[in-house]
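step: validate -> pass
step: tokenize input -> pass
step: predict -> running
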Amino acid sequence: MKLRIVPVVLTVVISASVLFGGWFLYRQMALQNPLANVVSQYDGVISSQIDIKQDTVTLKLDLEPETNLRGLVEHINKEGKSVVGKRTLKLEVEDHSSEQLNQWWDEAMLSVAEAMDNKQYTDIQSSLDELAKNSPTLKANAQIDDQNVYVSLSDGKSGKFIILPRQPGKMEVWNHA
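step: predict -> pass
step: emit ->
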């Protein structure tokens, strides 16, 4: 039996188009669009980009200065549960901080790092409040959930969002020691 090359190639191309086209449509219609709607409904979200992998959901967010980041994460986990499921949610917030906010965060970082290391999470907000007394326009807020501490700094025009994991990375022993 002699195989004709044109029908075989045409069958492979059509089959691949249907398979990958269906996968792409499923991913867009059943995963990304519903999650994009959930994210865009939240107050303070300017724009978002979503990347869904097998075990992670990565959100690249552009937020207004005084957006409640912990509230957004809670909203996504509650309303987007069908999409996020057991995947790990990773947030990347676009940085719109000013020089003043960066300088202020540099001053606050030592006390925040100490509170994180000692697992004294209530000390974070008190440290931020103490340092904010010198700057009347600065608003500093720390919130916590079961995985992260969310620090939000704002001077009204610009905002800085810091996400600190509650479980620090663990060092492993090298095999080549």
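step: describe -> The chain is about 45% helix and 25% strand.
step: cleanup -> pass
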